[in-house]
Amino acid sequence: MKFFTTPIGQYFPAESFVHRLDPRVKIVLTMFLMGATFAIKNYSGFVFLSLFLFFVILLSKLPFLWVLRTLRPLRYILLITFLIHLFLTPGLVLFKISFLKITEEGLKNGFFFCVRLIFLVAGTSLLTFTTTPVELTDGIEYLLSPFKWFKVSAHELAMMMTIALRFIPTLLVEAEKVLKAQLARGADFESRNILKRAKNLIPFIIPLFVSAFRRADELAMAMESRCYRGGEGRTRLRVLEMRAKDWLTLLFSPIVFIAIVCAGRIGF
């Protein structure tokens, strides 16, 4: 079993144009990116989207290997997605095994949705790579501030979302430590017997859950010891301020996304 070495949710420090953008702009553009990814209907749109993401990665000075590693945990989800479309999509039958039918439409849809999922994860990961947890919290809280009219606390929602993102790499590191410790004790995670493999996972899952609850309790105690009382009356060390480059990025990026969606609907 391979170790968990993915940097999902982890911030990559660098001095770049993307890093210096206002977090609210990056969050809004990430939402546009997600919408464009779902709106694309053919591969020509993905070609233009890949060029756009390639440009953003260069602009943010991120290592390409760092971005590609985010796709490693998706391999099983991609496989399941492909198989579901491959066997359950009706159409022209290419191959048949008992009650299982492989159709031409299923083959095309399975590959297309896997590509869509890859772009979705790789694109949205750029937000956490280029935005610190504090900036992400402030940006989400500001964008959720209209919900205060409905008696919904934007600060608590933003804090929970940011903590969840921040703890993903921490839990992965902890999972790697537990896995190494169990392998050193002779645990067998490579058995071909599914029941035996599931049974051997128990000594791995239980310490991981205990560690997660312990870290959550330590975080809660640390916040209470610092007199954390939510968002009412709280001030910020750094106040978010939109600058000219933020407004220009917010103005022109949606135009690029619209062009990508148009290309993804009329191309091949």
Describe the protein:
With about 270 residues, the chain is mainly alpha-helical. It is built from eleven helices and two strands, in the order H-H-H-H-H-E-E-H-H-H-H-H-H. A two-stranded antiparallel sheet has the order 1-2. Strand 1 (about 95) and strand 2 (about 100-105) form a beta hairpin. Helix 2 packs across helix 7 (about 135-145). The longest helix has about 30 residues, at about 155-185.
Count of extended strands: 2
Poorly predicted tracts of residues: 1-6
Helix content: 55-70%
Our count of helices gives: 11
Main beta sheet strand tally, sense and closure: 2 strands, antiparallel
Task: Supply Rg.
Answer: 22 Å
Strand content: under 5%
Strand arrangement across the biggest beta sheet: 1-2
Class by alpha and beta content: mainly alpha
Task: Give the SSE order as H and E letters.
Answer: HHHHHEEHHHHHH
Average pLDDT, rounded to a whole number, is 80
Shape: globular
Q: What is the end-to-end distance?
A: 40 Å
Topology:
Blueprint: H1 17-20, H2 23-39, H3 43-60, H4 64-68, H5 75-88, E1 93-97, E2 100-103, H6 104-130, H7 133-143, H8 154-184, H9 194-200, H10 202-225, H11 244-266
Antiparallel strand pairs: 1-2
